[in-house]
Amino acid sequence: MTRPRRLAALYRSPSYSPNQHRANDTAILDAAVRHLADRGWEVQRVAEPEVEQGRIPLADLYVNMCQGPAASERLVPIEADGALVVNRASSVLNCHRHRLVRHMIESHLPFPLTLIFNTGTDGGALRARLDPVFEPGTPVWVKRGDVHAERTEDVVPVRLEEVPLAFQAFAGRGILWAAVQEHIPGPVLKFYAVAGRRFFRWYAAEAGPTGAKPPVDAERMQDLAFAAAEVLGLEVFGGDVAVPSPGQPVLIDINDWPSFAPFREDAAAAIAGYIDSKVTNG
Questions:
Q1: In what order do the strands lie in the sheet containing 5-11?
Q2: What is the pTM (predicted TM-score) of this model?
Q3: HSE on the CB side for 103, CA within 13 Å?
């Protein structure tokens, strides 16, 4: 008798799913796994804290939504041994902001000017580094420099002269690294995607999924999103693009395995189809 194909579904820790994303993150993985189970996969569900402790079952496929460094570091050896992991732990680590910025700069894809600092940097030293780069009074974004936002305060808009105070607030919360990123004017668009161009949806952040869409070169935006994902090694991903002009979309963020909430069922089917095809075709 043929042995059932074994799938380990690795669920994200609630600490990495801020606010309403907690239920949505669980729901998209549940939906994708349900589609895979219908295709004959035998499913075992594992929470991120279990992965962090090394309690990882033997499986033919790991469908990985874990986001923290501890879990990813546990999964890296499994990935290196040739196990099929989607998203790969190395790709998840590439999305941690201090690595993401380096990869985007090296890729030469359209991406905002971004500098990473230790949040304990003296205010005077910090201004000495920032003043030659940004105009006085320039609006910038201060973002935590490790994992993506866990709460609203992890990504804050400030004036340049307010950056030291923002760093103090981050340091007070135990966040060691932060990014100072230039503000890109124009509407912000949110996108959700699956590798192989099996799935791509987008909408204007302000208007929402059912609202009006601003003018943008949609093909160029899609090319930008998939090119960035390829640099990082992502297969299931989402992000944000700013559009200073319709023909010049700029990637401002990209992350591993978003909630896909506005398009959950279609996305889950596309994710399962992509994964099953990847297994079948090697």
A1: 41-47, 5-11, 61-64, 84-86
A2: 0.94
A3: 22
